[in-house]
Amino acid sequence: MSEPIAFLRIPAESMFLPLMSLREVVMFPKAIVPLFVGRDSSIKAIETALEKYDKLIFLISQKDPGQERPDTDGLFDVGVVSKILQMLRLPDGTVKVLFENPFVGANFSRGIVGNPGLGFRKDAGYEFLKNPRYNWRKFLLSLVTVVVRFMDVLTSEQREKVLIIDDSLYDRSRSKVVELLAWVHDHNAGRSLKGFKLLTLGWSDGVSFLPLDFILCSSTKAGKRLQGVTKEVDKRCCGYKRRMEAMTKSTRHLETMVKRVQERGIRADYLLMDSWFAFPALLAALGKLLPVICMGKNLPKVFYRHEGQWLTLGRVFDKLKKRPGRARILASTVVETKKEQKVKIVFVRHRHKRQWLAILSTRIDLADEEIVRIYGKRWDIEVFFKTLKHHLNLERETQLRDFDGIIGHITIVMSRYVFLAFEQRCHDDPRTLGTLFYACSEEQKDLSLAEALRRLLSLALAKAREAGIIAEDAVLALIDAVMSFAIEMLQTGKRLQLDNIELTAS
Questions:
Q1: Phi–psi pair at 97, nearest 5 degrees
Q2: Regarding predicted confidence, which is higher, 158 or 263?
């Protein structure tokens, strides 16, 4: 007879889900995790979830991994609603299951604005978000600064910390009456869509990514804006400044955003950007703050000085001698921009097309391989955007029409991402138990030859003294003689012969 299956009731959703306890495994939202399952009760819970609950199951860790059938007291208080993606039965009776952990019930309206347990009504929550006087940028930057300092302690000095700038489409295609709603170009779709451009500046140490600042951009052209400013706002408040930023070209804000982050004391070695920001004037301005590495774009009106000629990026590539074979890096050279700035260009082979890609670096002393490797860290922000949209429901969980309300909503969603990144880092890095052991421990030092001899001799003589084999005066005299000889060995490089064993001081 198989073990009974446990069920969990979720009040927010008014539904039951099969419950499965985990040994020595902690599940987190957004993760896709394969697990081997062998307990009868766990297999039955999986089968029930597949048959009756649309593949949904509740996973929770047990406190004692050795406990075969834990009760309520043996389980932690927090778990994760997961979805079963695949299940494979193995010959030994166990099953291999692939779990995906979505954010079930993580709706902003129900969780924050419409939660009666918080003590205020839904209208009060929305009015809070729509207040133009709240400095959401300062809140996000202050929050992330604390987390960055925590993670900075855990990151080796040899590992590069980078700032990453990129934008992404904030889709509001189904909306009609949204303040400053505009037609914006989507690079991936290759066409214009209704919405905004979410310009984001983030920090990464190669392990964790954190959003630092963002600007929600409308179109700079009045003809492409479907809605204008719908309410009067005091020109001295944050809401007015946010609206002016939205109607200004996004590239004008990059230098200010980087300076704002640096003033907070957030350290970074490089600034990474996509090709949409790779203009000589912008490279010159940002290059004064940080070394810039970005993707180049072959534009007909952007020229580089190479061997005395002003050439486009494509013409520069044609002039260079290519590396033979199927080399990843095709060629590299140092050129000069119209702003009299030297830039190193590394041409790499495109993985999927018979074309090349160009990576620009304002640090011309970096090796080609280093430039390519560091630029690869820019992918962290793409993962960030995907997580915000597909797992944190950035675009779907609220239908706010007020521009300030949208800014507040985006800030809260990014803050949730920061908390998840923090929890993930604490779970994955063994040094993060309140940084107790990492911060308080000292690195073990190598013993010198003299110190090792002193300790060994002291131990041997202490035993001889306890046994009454040797007198106290003789002990002290022997220690002095041996230490003097050891020091002489270290200084002169003498060799010591003991019973056919040769020792050399080094």
A1: -125, 135
A2: 263
User: Helix or strand or coil: residue 306?
Assistant: strand
pTM for this predicted structure: 0.67
Say whether both 419 and 380 belong to one domain: yes
Q: Using CA atoms, how far apart are residues 305 and 283, in angstroms rounded to an integer?
A: 15
pLDDT tens for residues 65-117? Answer: 888 888 888 888 778 888 888 888 888 788 888 888 765 445 555 556 555 65
Between CA 225 and CA 219 the distance in angstroms is 6
**For 93, left (φ over 0), alpha (ψ -120 to 50), or beta?**
left
Please report the sign of the dihedral spanned by the C-alpha atoms of residue 112, residue 114, residue 118, residue 120. positive
Q: How far is CA 109 from the centre of its chain?
A: 27
pLDDT band at 435 (very low <50, low <70, confident <90, very high): very low
Structure tokens at 366: 């970096």
Closest CA to 405 of 130, 111, 216: 130
Query: Is the domain of 260 the same as that of 381?
Result: yes
The domain of 470 spans 449-504
Percent of the chain with pLDDT over 90: 39
The CATH number of the domain holding residue 78 is: 2.30.130.40
Asked if the model's pLDDT at residue 191 lies above 70, the reply is yes
184 contacts: CB under 8 Å, gap ≥ 6:
169, 192, 193, 194, 195, 196, 197, 217, 218, 219, 224
Over residues 393-412, the mean pLDDT reads 88
Between β-strands 56-61 and 15-22, what pairing exists: parallel, antiparallel or unpaired?
Answer: parallel
d(CA 387, CA 274): 19
Is residue 442 one of the residues assigned to a domain? no
Task: Among 104, 121, 151, identify where a domain stops.
Answer: 104
Inside any domain, residue 49: yes
136, 273, 364 from 219: Cα distances, Å: 22, 21, 36
Longest dimension (CA), the chain: 102
What mean pLDDT do residues 216-234 have? 90
Written as six digits, the tokens of 179 are 């303040």
Last residue of some domain: 46, 72, 104?
104
User: Are residue 156 and residue 229 in the same domain, yes or no?
Assistant: yes
Q: In this structure, which amino acid lies at residue 152?
A: D
Q: For residues 184 and 31, give the distance between their C-alpha atoms in angstroms, rounded to a whole number.
A: 32
Asked if 60 contacts 76 with a C-beta cutoff of 8 angstroms, the reply is yes
The pLDDT tens digits of the residues spanning 322-355 come to 888 788 899 999 999 988 899 999 999 887 777 8
Separation of alpha carbons 315 and 114, rounded Å: 59
Q: What distances in angstroms separate CA 359 from CA 17, 262, 332, 336, 431, one per listed residue?
A: 50, 25, 9, 14, 36
Lowest-pLDDT range of 10-19, 154-163, 193-202, 455-464: 10-19
Mean pLDDT of the region 269-283 = 92
Tell which wins on pLDDT, 157 or 506: 157
